[in-house]
Task: structure prediction
Amino acid sequence: MRRSVAFFVALAVPLLACSLLVDTTGLAGDGPAALDSGDEGQGPAADAAKDAAFDAHSSTSAYRAAVLADDPVAYFRLGDPSGATSVKNEVQTSGASGSLANAPRLSVPGAIVGDLDTAIGFDTANGARLDLGTFLPRFDGLDASIELWFKRTVIPPDSARFLFDRQTPAGLSGPRYALFLLNTRIHFERVGVDGGADVLYPGISIGLGSWYHVVVTTAAGGPVSIFVNGVVVGGTTTPAVVTPADLAGSLYFGTNVASLNSDAAAAIDEIAIYSKPLSAARVLEHYRVGTTPP
Result:
């Protein structure tokens, strides 16, 4: 494919804490936390040649094949070239598109071992983001999953940094769901129209400079599960009450909807969205393929 998605959060809601442990050893592959763009100053001809190479490579990518085998409703590999203002959707029939804003860093080294495809850095402290608009999923009691890979570049103290976020147009005062990093922990929060909340706070540590694979799933009826590096690390037992009309806002990756200075401080890669909860077996298979040399 072509190479083309701080504020402190005080959670004043009951926490559903999970202390399950998981091996979150980072993935080997691309060295230190600093992200390299790798294609400055090479000119249009070199860029065109690289685009052709990426297209040819992507068509044979084992990881891409594993994701597409699970019928995502949208899939963004994020290998778009420098200067791109939108990202390519590998699911051509879905109609979903993503727009880039505030110049995230493109063409940084990607997550998948042995794969030439690149990632996007959302660590420029200027509200850089990928906006998927009002596209699914809503996490409102429907079947849905969001999958991505991320690598932290800095750990700002006591500052929530958002991997994805969706809220009502009213912002933090209304229903929302978000996956964010706070200090060395990952959190998923879903707040319902009734004010009830599901908050997942797995007892695992997320470090610098390593890629992590994360999948958040929900089944009809509302319970949520979160997987890190192929293993389930927490889940809810009761759903928050969230209706489709309550989440009319855009789904952002790389920052928070209400406070655009809360960028992810991370690279993000391989975003996939499904209209079903991925099974534990398929989540593990995606992680296995992504970490196994071709």
